[in-house]
Specification:
The protein has 79 residues and is mostly helical. Helices cover 78% and strands 0% of the residues. The protein is elongated and about 50 Å long. It starts with 7 loop residues before the first helix and ends with a helix.
Length: 79
């Protein structure tokens, strides 16, 4: 058992050294950023499809809605 927090980066650091742990930690962080961005881009499509107005959504509108969601969720997390 590893006695420190950190998940996969802690395991990589203990098994392969500090550089490997650093690289794994950054890879996980970038993976989270990409998944969050893709998820927020698809939220408007699901919401508009749920109310039956998917045809009224344009490419710029879904990006603006996703950006607004990033700001709102970031603000909530800061509080």
């Amino acid at each position: 058992m590893i006695s420190e927090p950190g998940g996969s980066s802690a395991i990589a650091r203990r098994a392969f050294g500090d550089l490997a742990g650093f690289v794994v930690g950054w890879a996980v962080l970038l993976d989270f950023v990409v998944i969050i961005a893709l998820s927020l881009l698809f939220v408007p499509h699901y919401a508009f499809a749920a109310v039956g107005r998917l045809d009224s959504l344009s490419g710029h509108q879904d990006a603006i809605i996703a950006g607004g969601l990033v700001i709102v969720l970031g603000g909530v997390r800061l509080l």
